[in-house]
């Protein structure tokens, strides 16, 4: 069983930055593929970033050059550094985890955090 807790969301102005954190429980963090998803009101949930067990990251095109995902295995933490934020980044951001490496890139995950709200003002 894995518990995920996101933090770091908030209200920022266009062009500002936020750093989201995801704390994961359990002993086998290094075995989990991690991901960041987001969902805006009235829109479908979308994958923002994938972090593999080796620390490789994949970020969707709309946030390339602005967002950076990373993991700290020693701390059981995953991060999403968000820079040059835009109003269209406004959404609830979710941390997710799965034991199998191919699920999160496919938009699926076994474990989900409760979400943290990111609001970017115009």
Mean pLDDT: 95
Largest sheet: 7 strands, mixed
Radius of gyration over alpha carbons? 13 Å
What class do helices, strands and sheet pairing give? mainly beta
Count of individual beta strands? 11
Task: Quote the beta fraction.
Answer: over 45%
| Shape label | globular
Q: What is the N-to-C order of secondary-structure elements (H for helix, E for strand)?
A: EEEEEEEEEEE
Relative helix content? under 10%
The rounded distance between the terminal residues' Cα atoms is 40 Å
Describe this structure in words.
The chain is mainly beta. The protein has no helices and eleven strands. It has strands at residues 4-7, 10-13, 18-24, 33-39, 46-51, 57-59, 67-72, 77-82, 91-98, 111-112, 116-121. Strands 2, 4, 5, 6, 9, 10 and 11 form a seven-stranded mixed sheet that branches. It has a four-stranded antiparallel sheet with strand order 1-3-8-7, with no helix packed on it. A hairpin with a 5-residue loop joins strand 5 and strand 6. The chain starts with a strand and ends with a strand.
From the structure above, extract its key features.
seven-stranded mixed sheet; four-stranded antiparallel sheet; mainly beta; 122 residues
Q: Nutshell version of this structure?
A:
The protein is an all-beta fold and 122 residues long. The protein is 0% helix and 48% strand. Strands 2, 4, 5, 6, 9, 10 and 11 form a 7-stranded mixed β-sheet that branches.
